[in-house]
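Box 3.1. Reading complex inputs
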Amino acid sequence: MVAQNIFFYAIAAVMVFSAIRVVTCKNVVHAAMYLVLVLAGVAAQYILLASEFLAATQVLVYIGAIVVLVLFGVMLTRAKLGEDVNLTNDYWYVGAFTAVILFVLLATSLLDHYGDEPLDQANAETQLANNTEQVADALFSAYVVPFQAVSVLLLVALVGAIALARRD
Amino acid sequence: MDDLMLNQFLLLSAILFSVGVYGVLAKRNAVVVLMSIELILNAVNINLIAFGAHNGTIVGSVFALFVIAVAAAEVGVGLAIVLLIYRNRKSVDLDEVAQMRG
């Protein structure tokens, strides 16, 4: 239990630092690299929460595909690869104010409502057994219609991205 | 302190969400805004998985999978739009894309 907590706080510290670097970094490529750290940290948190299938999916889809796509976006839009001081707009303090207010609201309501409720480890452990099997069972029984809808959505996104990006 | 709390996951996700909101509001580069949206979606996913583990149900994981699929579609179409903006205007500065201002 203590080891889990140590890992949680170590990973959380890396994630928070990297997330802040993603939005404060002056270099777009460095921001994408810090995004990789955040996404890997999220995968590690999934493992702490006994969802190893989601952790594998996170690594494959986010780190493997989405970050590469973002890096291609950086390359194709010729964002300056060196320092780019104008990455933040003139009204950044409004954004910072909104984010701080939002966080204070979320944190107070969470602390108020969940206090120090322990994570139900017994439940988490029943989930740990055959996690992938359970996900597959749920996906192909109760959630088969949304699953098909997602496949159609991905097809639509594919066709839409090609139709938008091709030159005629 | 010797047990994992539900709240520590929820607070971590609240921090990630707020940082993502700041990025969406404050950055000028469209690609960085897309990265901030990924931060927000990941914060939501941590919440889904944490509540799923807390309640002992697999549904949280299933919904997180759907969120991942939608995020992949979103980033694909989003980058296509950013590319189109770059092709037409030679810049991805969101402050300059103001034709739709009322």
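In summary: Chain B touches chain A through 76 residues (CB under 8 Å).
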